[in-house]
UniProtKB/TrEMBL annotation:
The keyword Transmembrane helix applies. It comes from the Bacteria. The chain crosses the membrane at residues 12-36. The lineage of its organism: Bacteria, Candidatus Harrisoniibacteriota. Keywords: Membrane, Transmembrane, Transmembrane helix. It comes from Candidatus Harrisonbacteria bacterium RIFCSPLOWO2_01_FULL_40_28. This is Uncharacterized protein.
Length: 107
């Protein structure tokens, strides 16, 4: 007696395709988890770096404030009076052609 099974010749191909799709689905799910974890790590690192940058910016502003306070004209005039310094009307160290003249002129 002959039994006809029309699907039997495609059974191996169907199971191979089903297994391949299942394997691809697993790899895609694992890849999605990896990408999500990396994005969470990046957001956390970005938040940490942003806080560090703000802290550095605040320190920079404080240092600039201290520097500008030291070079303020009122502070310098007080320093001149405190140390009994006299203003030189024609300083000889700024003669044309001298090294200091060239250095001062480059700024």
């Amino acid at each position: 007696m002959t039994v006809i099974q029309p699907v039997s010749e495609y059974k191996n191909i169907v199971s191979l395709i089903t297994g391949a799709l299942a394997l691809i689905s697993v790899f895609m799910f694992a890849g999605t988890l990896y990408v999500y974890q990396e994005s969470v790590d990046m957001r956390h690192e970005l938040a940490v770096r942003t806080k560090l940058l703000e802290k550095i910016h605040i320190e920079s502003v404080e240092l600039k404030d201290a520097l500008y306070g030291l070079t303020d004209t009122l502070h310098l005039k007080g320093l001149v009076g405190e140390r009994n310094l006299v203003e030189d009307k024609s300083p000889s160290y700024f003669r044309k052609g001298s090294i200091l003249w060239a250095a001062a002129r480059s700024y």
